[in-house]
């Protein structure tokens, strides 16, 4: 893979931070090393001495004074070694990436990873492929970059490879490496429990999309924050598990399974590209919270992979019951006024309202009068001003009783709008 052609001018110009290099070198050096380098503050001046954090299903996480000093100090930009080691082992067991040059770094939530990957790969005027509707945070990150967002049709099984083939037929694979070629270099997708649709790609669709990416020499950004919220086993293989070339950049998140507020995510992909992401981290956030990384690392090591998987199973069971409750209430109240597909992963139900051309005004104004709030589908579209008959309902927080009452109110709202 020639990654140079994918990089933006800004990303290609990034150089390692000399101070960051010294900081990371110092952390790997023996205690006998006397360092007058770097700019780390003296931890003896910090007011925090120790911490003890109770865990729902596991031993208490303790920070004595020595551990606390490390947790409150600067750390390596790519992540704390023991957390990276644990996560690399997990990625190998889950996905077994066939590309030997696969690397990983820690990010402040997967959103930081996504933003930095986009900044690394997308230049003004580039054509970027994605399945729309898509995550509004992705649109917020991509649209200011001045690229052309091209919608690839999708359904309840995610991105449609035949639709992708039709879009790509506008170009010839022979044009890929020509100067100033307009052939898309990047394809973005949420393969499991997509936000907002809840759609999940089948293994065969992923293989078909990957082959098209090989044919047109594209990179695939596999944004998979709901990977651990798949309701049915076995889980479909990931793009990363198929990546023999080194053309998949994967983002993972702990937000849905450990904590959204801890802001802990991961970027996995070809080493030359992950290194570029780390250079951007050096120049921006410097590193993800040392305290967060050490706390989660201690928890994961105490659990082991088996304990982690048991925790995941408990989380999945909770969301499965929530999903079933929402589907049941939808069948009860919305069957005549809306349509939907039951999600196989994630937190969302994507609902098409019958007889409604656009849901913007209906949701933003009239729904508040009925005291029920959903997200109008237009915010997930490339052009948010286009009419959209969909709404997104989340089943993550509300109780089954609240979901049932919300859909009763929504049903009344739709019927009033239809009359």
UniProtKB/TrEMBL annotation:
<dbReference type="Pfam" id="PF00155">
    <property type="entry name" value="Aminotran_1_2"/>
</dbReference>
<comment type="similarity">
    <text>Belongs to the class-I pyridoxal-phosphate-dependent aminotransferase family.</text>
</comment>
<dbReference type="InterPro" id="IPR015424">
    <property type="entry name" value="PyrdxlP-dep_Trfase"/>
</dbReference>
<feature type="domain" description="Aminotransferase class I/classII large">
    <location>
        <begin position="65"/>
        <end position="410"/>
    </location>
</feature>
<keyword id="KW-0808">Transferase</keyword>
<dbReference type="InterPro" id="IPR050859">
    <property type="entry name" value="Class-I_PLP-dep_aminotransf"/>
</dbReference>
<protein>
    <recommendedName>
        <fullName>Kynurenine/alpha-aminoadipate aminotransferase, mitochondrial</fullName>
        <ecNumber>2.6.1.39</ecNumber>
        <ecNumber>2.6.1.4</ecNumber>
        <ecNumber>2.6.1.63</ecNumber>
        <ecNumber>2.6.1.7</ecNumber>
        <ecNumber>2.6.1.73</ecNumber>
    </recommendedName>
</protein>
<dbReference type="GO" id="GO:0005759">
    <property type="term" value="C:mitochondrial matrix"/>
</dbReference>
<dbReference type="GO" id="GO:0047315">
    <property type="term" value="F:kynurenine-glyoxylate transaminase activity"/>
</dbReference>
<comment type="function">
    <text>Transaminase with broad substrate specificity. Has transaminase activity towards aminoadipate, kynurenine, methionine and glutamate. Shows activity also towards tryptophan, aspartate and hydroxykynurenine. Accepts a variety of oxo-acids as amino-group acceptors, with a preference for 2-oxoglutarate, 2-oxocaproic acid, phenylpyruvate and alpha-oxo-gamma-methiol butyric acid. Can also use glyoxylate as amino-group acceptor (in vitro).</text>
</comment>
<keyword id="KW-0663">Pyridoxal phosphate</keyword>
<comment type="pathway">
    <text>Amino-acid degradation; L-lysine degradation via saccharopine pathway; glutaryl-CoA from L-lysine: step 4/6.</text>
</comment>
<dbReference type="GO" id="GO:0016212">
    <property type="term" value="F:kynurenine-oxoglutarate transaminase activity"/>
</dbReference>
<dbReference type="GO" id="GO:0047958">
    <property type="term" value="F:glycine:2-oxoglutarate aminotransferase activity"/>
</dbReference>
<dbReference type="GO" id="GO:0030170">
    <property type="term" value="F:pyridoxal phosphate binding"/>
</dbReference>
<dbReference type="GO" id="GO:1901605">
    <property type="term" value="P:alpha-amino acid metabolic process"/>
</dbReference>
<dbReference type="GO" id="GO:0050094">
    <property type="term" value="F:methionine-glyoxylate transaminase activity"/>
</dbReference>
<dbReference type="InterPro" id="IPR004839">
    <property type="entry name" value="Aminotransferase_I/II_large"/>
</dbReference>
<dbReference type="GO" id="GO:0047536">
    <property type="term" value="F:2-aminoadipate transaminase activity"/>
</dbReference>
<dbReference type="InterPro" id="IPR015421">
    <property type="entry name" value="PyrdxlP-dep_Trfase_major"/>
</dbReference>
<keyword id="KW-0032">Aminotransferase</keyword>
